[in-house]
User: Which sequence fits this backbone?
């Protein structure tokens, strides 16, 4: 405790928050199994763990969304019983969820004061509230316009509104649930600066995350959870990403490989050193690559910083220049890759309509050859879903052509796309991916029901289906009682394993993956990465649409950035760096590029 | 080794009685049996509870409960006549329940089986009357086919409206019922009216258009065997064919089915149309096997009973014929109950409704009990592990 770095207002009377022996069950599942958790005053405390580790459940118990079955909560020295979020807010605990609960048609100020006492006589007066919001925003660098309608704000700003909401209610403990999921690297940096300012002013923060890098950047202390239990609480200065990964997964064999992914862009040299000799031989080349990447990114970070400064000074010159640069990359890349293998997927100038009929993807050209992974980066909501569905044949483009293995499939039914070897792993697994009331075997059959492997003359070969299902359950370590278990009873991570098992077992020629590892723990994530490498090695082409830049930098041969429905940049992996991609994702170079267009 | 694994749902598994399926390994059919057992328990409990409440009501009305129940439950089995009447009631009820259940599996609601049956009956009567010169082996299949096709077209209208314009099929099928009443009147009063009939009815169909009778007196019509065959066919189709699988997948999650190459549109249309065809078949069997003609009001309350049966069977086509038989027993027992204990026939509707309500309650209770039991088992297991 003495090594705490940001020693603001040293705790005079014990920790700010002490949760003891918290137990929470959901039906058959024990989600929290006697968790002890404490937060000091004035610290950012990271709550780290894989999917299903129980971090969000623990915090929901603290915030009154769930009632723990047993255990105690002591906050500021007083034992509390929290029955509802209203209680938590009254005691000074605030929480920012992954999905914001905001009234779209209200202004920022109106949203913030909603549910608090505002003087409404002689007239409804928000002036004082507005002043307080602006003061808070300024003090913590949470820039928002208090008079803007929330519906008009981007995700990053809406998140600031949510944080301001908690601060407005004088929260002395702020819980953030995976706050960086939809943010660009720049926004993440700004958020972390604000968090630091908030903590310096005396409020403690609990940061729920599964990203090791982030927690190493901002947290003072870290608590790692696994399987509903607290594994360890560590001081950041005394730990390494490697140790954290180790604690999160608890499986040494997996860590060895995961370290590559996690530590890849980690600036601390000791992690690079200690992973190099221990790497298994199969990943040696990847390791070498990552090492050179480290150097490259270290070098380019400075360049980028300079460039960024330059952009601010004279944007008119700088932006078109960088746009040209990316265009040149594209040509070079196209020439380089021509002999790499047969073209699996060719997309020529497609426009894809969104759900409301407006065009969501404009003039998109892509080519993916056998054995390659094409990464598509971008902040959620920039046309990824529409593009993914168009690439999978689910959504019909309003213009342009799509062909698979040289066969034009534009406008053909999904069945033809499946027959051509296209397999799609959708982002929204409950809505698009799974038959919740059906068995695992039924789910694994979905999409293959008309193949000769699983049916003959219109009759399903259930024996083959069940046998294959049992094999896949074992191979993909789906935790279920068997192939006849109902899919809806599985946890989110296990449902995703079923979906991935189905996709990979089809031995696709073209695989469209949309956020395939979201919500998976490190071990499962690495397992998915291994499968992706396996299918590309056997000649498939993979389109990986992901919000996780680490994932793209680790897997993709080329990265395409999607902003506002347009491809705004194409970068080969070797030349990619996080900050350039971040700028593209934020649309910083899009305007200059659009001007070039007729 | 971990909490989650221990906590996997524990199903109540009943001891195996007869190996039902040769397909799959031992745990598969054992689990299937267990699931059936788990499904049967709440149904049995619900029926018992419904009968208990009905008994209280009958007693409160001042009737003899024992006599009433004795005739209600045994009328179908005491006499040959009662059993044949029960079978003849079972035929339309099974077809109506299937006409409701098959679209239900795909997530669609066919509330128009009444109309589909009536147009089927009208078409069957028309063919049966006008084809009087034809021999039975030609005419009878034509009569049955006419009913099937008419029901198919009638449901097809609703399916087409749904597919083309997104018209809710609940509305269109219900409204088409009213249109079908007009079709019945037109057929029975203008096309082939029976001038001596007291109310709207057609002439008799030709003897060659009637279903052969089977057994000794009283005889039952061969439509019973036909419906038995149809039921088995439907069960096999839904369980074992690709189309049946796609039907179930569309019902479970239409988006996921669509993304994985199932044509959700054709499945929805197909399910409604097949349901209509089965209701139409019910119409032609009523004409060719029971009434010998089309008459107003021949649809009785089959629509409502079909829906109740479908809901009690909870979408399981295996359960439909069984539940339909049980409801037929009650329906036939109702008038016997009125004769012997002077309990009004309407009481049987109350019994049927109570069964449905108690099944819904039992569902919720069973779910809670299994969950609580599983949670307790998980904790016990955990304690054992930590002490070991």
Assistant:
């Amino acid at each position: 405790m003495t090594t705490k770095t940001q020693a603001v207002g040293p705790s005079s009377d014990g920790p700010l928050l002490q949760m003891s022996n918290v137990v929470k069950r959901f039906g058959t599942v024990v989600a929290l199994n006697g968790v002890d958790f404490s937060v000091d005053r004035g610290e950012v405390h990271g709550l780290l763990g894989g999917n299903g580790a129980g971090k969000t459940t623990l915090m929901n118990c603290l915030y009154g969304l769930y009632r723990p079955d047993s255990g105690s909560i002591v906050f500021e020295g007083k034992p509390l019983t929290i029955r509802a979020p209203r209680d938590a807010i009254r005691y000074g605990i605030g929480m920012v969820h992954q999905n914001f609960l905001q009234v779209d048609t209200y202004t920022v100020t109106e949203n913030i004061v909603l549910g608090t006492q505002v003087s409404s006589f002689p007239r409804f007066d928000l002036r004082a509230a507005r002043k307080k919001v602006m003061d808070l925003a300024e003090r913590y660098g949470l820039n928002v316009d208090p008079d803007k309608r929330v519906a008009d704000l981007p995700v990053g700003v809406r998140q600031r509104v949510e944080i301001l909401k908690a601060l407005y209610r004088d929260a002395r403990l702020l819980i953030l649930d995976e706050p960086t999921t939809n943010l660009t690297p720049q926004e993440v940096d700004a958020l972390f600066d604000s968090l630091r300012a908030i903590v310096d002013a005396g409020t403690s923060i609990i940061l729920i995350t599964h990203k090791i890098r982030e927690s190493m950047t901002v947290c003072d202390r870290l608590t790692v959870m696994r399987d509903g239990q607290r594994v360890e609480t560590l001081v950041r200065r005394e730990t390494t990403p490697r140790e954290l990964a180790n604690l999160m997964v608890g499986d040494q064999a997996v860590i060895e490989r995961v370290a590559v992914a996690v530590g890849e862009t980690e600036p601390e040299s000791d992690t690079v050193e200690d992973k190099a000799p221990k790497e298994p031989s199969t990943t040696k080349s990847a390791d070498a690559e990552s090492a050179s990447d480290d150097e490259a990114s270290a070098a380019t970070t400075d360049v980028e910083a300079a460039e960024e400064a330059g952009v601010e000074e004279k944007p008119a010159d700088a932006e078109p220049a960088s746009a040209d640069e990316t265009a040149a990359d594209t040509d070079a890349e196209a020439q380089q890759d021509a002999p790499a293998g047969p073209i699996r997927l060719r997309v020529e100038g497609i426009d894809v309509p969104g759900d409301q009929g407006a065009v969501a993807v404009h003039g998109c050209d892509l080519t993916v050859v056998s054995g390659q992974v094409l990464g598509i980066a971008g902040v959620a909501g920039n046309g990824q879903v529409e593009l993914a569905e168009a690439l999978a044949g689910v959504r019909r483009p309003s213009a342009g052509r799509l062909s698979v293995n040289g066969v034009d499939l534009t406008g053909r039914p999904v069945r033809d796309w499946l027959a051509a070897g296209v397999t799609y792993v959708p982002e929204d697994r409950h809505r698009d991916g799974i038959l919740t009331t059906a068995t695992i075997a039924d789910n694994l059959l979905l999409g293959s029901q008309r193949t000769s492997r699983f049916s003959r003359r219109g009759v399903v070969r259930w024996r083959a289906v069940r046998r294959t299902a049992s094999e896949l359950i074992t191979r993909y370590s789906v935790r279920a009682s068997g192939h006849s278990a109902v899919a809806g009873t599985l946890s989110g991570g296990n449902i995703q394993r079923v979906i991935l098992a189905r996709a990979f077992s089809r031995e696709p020629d073209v695989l469209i993956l949309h956020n395939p590892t979201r919500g998976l723990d490190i071990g499962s994530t690495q397992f998915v990465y291994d499968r992706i490498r396996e299918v590309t090695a056997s000649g498939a082409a993979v389109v990986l649409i992901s919000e996780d830049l680490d994932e793209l930098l680790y897997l993709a041969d080329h990265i395409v950035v999607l902003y506002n429905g347009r491809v705004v940049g194409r970068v080969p992996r070797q030349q990619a760096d996080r900050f350039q991609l971040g700028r593209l994702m934020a649309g910083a170079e899009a305007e200059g590029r659009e001007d070039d267009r007729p | 080794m971990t909490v989650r694994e221990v906590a996997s749902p524990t199903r109540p598994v009943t001891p195996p009685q007869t190996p039902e399926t040769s397909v799959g390994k031992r745990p598969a059919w054992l689990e299937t049996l267990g699931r059936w057992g788990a499904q049967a328990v709440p149904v049995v409990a619900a029926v018992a509870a419904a009968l208990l409440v009905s008994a209280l009501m009958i007693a409160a009305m001042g009737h003899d409960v024992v006599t009433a129940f004795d005739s209600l439950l045994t009328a179908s089995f005491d006499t040959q006549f009662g059993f044949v009447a029960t079978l003849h009631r079972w035929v339309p009820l099974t077809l109506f329940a299937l006409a409701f259940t098959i679209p239900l599996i795909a997530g669609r609601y066919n509330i128009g089986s009444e109309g589909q049956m009536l147009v089927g009956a009208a078409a069957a009567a028309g063919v049966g009357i006008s084809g009087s010169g034809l021999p039975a082996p030609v005419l009878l299949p034509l009569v049955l086919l006419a009913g099937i096709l008419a029901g198919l077209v009638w449901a097809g209208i609703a399916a087409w409206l749904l597919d083309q314009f997104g018209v809710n099929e609940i509305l269109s099928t219900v409204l088409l019922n009213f249109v079908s009443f007009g079709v019945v009147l037109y057929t029975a009063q203008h096309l082939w009216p029976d001038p001596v009939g007291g109310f709207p009815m057609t002439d008799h169909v030709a003897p060659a258009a009637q279903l052969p009778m089977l057994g000794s007196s009283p005889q039952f019509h061969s439509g019973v065997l036909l419906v038995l065959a149809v039921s088995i066919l439907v069960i096999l189709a839904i369980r074992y064919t690709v189309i049946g699988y796609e039907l179930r997948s569309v019902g479970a999650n239409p988006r996921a089915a669509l993304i994985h190459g199932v044509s959700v549109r054709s499945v929805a249309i197909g399910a409604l149309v097949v349901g209509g065809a089965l209701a139409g078949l019910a119409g032609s069997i009523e004409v060719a096997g029971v009434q010998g003609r089309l008459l107003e009001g021949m649809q009785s309350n089959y629509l409502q009973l079909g829906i109740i049966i479908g809901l009690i069977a909870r979408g399981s086509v295996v359960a439909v014929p069984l539940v339909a038989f049980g409801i037929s027993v009650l329906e036939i027992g109702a008038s016997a109950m009125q004769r012997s204990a002077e309990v009004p026939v309407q009481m049987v509707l109350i019994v049927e409704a109570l069964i449905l309500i108690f099944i819904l309650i039992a569902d919720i209770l069973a779910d809670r009990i299994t969950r609580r039991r599983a949670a307790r088992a998980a904790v016990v297991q955990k304690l054992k592990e930590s002490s070991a």
Remarks:
- The first helix of chain A runs from residue 55 to 62.
- Chain A has a mean pLDDT of 78.
